[in-house]
Amino acid sequence: MSLFWIVIRQLAEIEAMATSKKVITKEEWEKKLNDVKIMKEDMNKLVMNFLVTEGYVDAAEKFRMESGTEPDIDLATITDRMAVKKAVQCGNVEDAIEKVNDLNPEILDTNPQLFFHLQQQRLIELIRNGKVEEALEFAQEELAPRGEENQSFLEELERTVSLLAFEDVSNCPVGELLDISQRLKTASEVNAAILTSQSHEKDPKLPSLLKMLIWAQNQLDEKAAYPHINDLSTATLEDPAI
Known about the structure:
Layout: H1 3-19, E1 22-23, H2 26-34, H3 40-54, H4 57-67, H5 76-89, H6 93-103, H7 106-109, H8 112-128, H9 132-149, H10 151-161, H11 180-197, H12 205-220, E2 224-225, E3 228-229, E4 237-238
Parallel strand pairs: 1-2
Antiparallel strand pairs: 3-4
Helix pairs in contact: 3-4, 5-6, 5-11, 8-9, 8-10, 8-11, 9-10
């Protein structure tokens, strides 16, 4: 065999060794997991953080009583925040704006983008209800001046007003503005702003940890074959693919 082919063969063997993955059985993996200790107090805090951030006030109060875990904000403020969120989700934007101002006027005063999006949602609701003249007047008086000061606002305003040009919104390229998902998007933005004003995280920590779990599995895939958690709702370990 020539020296060339000997070298090629050795390189191929080295590459195969380098790229081969360690196989970890389900039993081995479970043993490693059992060696990891997590404090129950930390788990309770994660649950409470999720309930508070997402606005499950009744569940948060019950969990506080059962676990002894204290929330980091007054649970009464959750009810007020959820009232704002529900108002936006139901299309009652004017009511939502009033409730936000009752909570803290600085929220809208210091967040022009949020205020614009709420006004944009008001415009969408007018269009949804077929109030064309009122919608045009509202757009001209309330939104156009803000669009002149901000190019992105102007573009969003133009997209919204273009809804009026279509009798059948199902064929409208911006018809998604009339979807319930648009209300939910605006409601989530308001919810996050209120949480921030209360010095609370705007996003729950639990989803971030789950994202980190998926990321870590993807990174480990390059080095080993091991039991995966593919269904986060059950957290079931599945045998490694070999």
